[in-house]
Amino acid sequence: MKTKLAAGAAAGVAIVALASVGAAAAIPAAKDWYEGRHDQSSQYTTGAEAKAGRASVPRWLPDDAREIRYAMKTTGGDRLLKATLPTGKLPAECTALPSSTRAKEPNLSASWFPGKETGLAQARCGLYYAYTDGNTLYAWQDNDDWINDNKSS
User: Fold this and answer.
1) Do 71 and 39 meet the contact criterion of CB atoms below 8 Å apart?
2) What is the pTM of this model?
3) What is the residue-wise DSSP string for 37-100?
4) Does residue 126 sit in helix, strand or coil?
5) How many CB atoms lie within 10 A of CB 136?
6) What pairing do the DSSP bridges indicate for beta strands 66-73 and 79-84?
């Protein structure tokens, strides 16, 4: 009888231990899913394809831009954009960022986006902060700017 009780207790301890390990692995995975469930990312060959494929891609993106990477939150206006520009020059719709204006930090992250590069912002392209590095355009939109713009529309 004692052997059966000891075996049952050992099995119970093993089940609890396995459940704890499973929960320890499942909780971070669930957290990652929960926090990222509204994030979407897309790739397009050209600017024209990107604008045709997703209405939220900015219209100022040149049609002949290449290698488009785009990320967005579906719950607001946070956006990231990376593109190769044929000339390396910002689109004509972009205006120089006043020296007194500090760019807001991107609220999204992506492996293809350099990160919190607010000090490199050279311009505003619509609601986006933007800069170029060679022929590569990096741009991001802040949710608060998007909300304020939609209030006034």
Assistant:
1) yes
2) 0.74
3) TTEEEEEEEEHHHHHHH-TTS-TTS-TT-EEEEEEEETTSS-EEEEEE-SSSSPPTTEEEPPTT
4) coil
5) 14
6) antiparallel
First to last CA, the chain: 78
What does the alpha-carbon distance between residue 54 and residue 49 come to, in Å, rounded to a whole number?
A: 9
Angle 138-142-143 from CA coordinates, rounded to 5°: 145
**Residue 6 vs residues 11, 12, 15, 87: alpha-carbon distances, Å:** 9, 10, 14, 76
With CA atoms as reference, report the closest residue to 80 among 101, 54, 98, 99: 54
- Count of CB atoms situated within 10 Å of the CB of 103: 21
Q: Which residues contact 139 (CB under 8 A, 6 or more apart)?
A: 58, 79, 80, 81, 82, 125, 128, 129, 130, 131
3-state secondary structure of 143: helix
Taking Cα atoms as reference points, which of 82, 81, 80, 76 lies closest to residue 38?
Answer: 76
Q: List, for residues 21-55, the tens digit of each pLDDT value.
A: 554 554 554 444 444 556 899 999 999 999 999 99
Mind listing the pLDDT tens digit for each residue in 93-132?
999 999 888 899 999 999 999 977 778 999 999 999 999 9
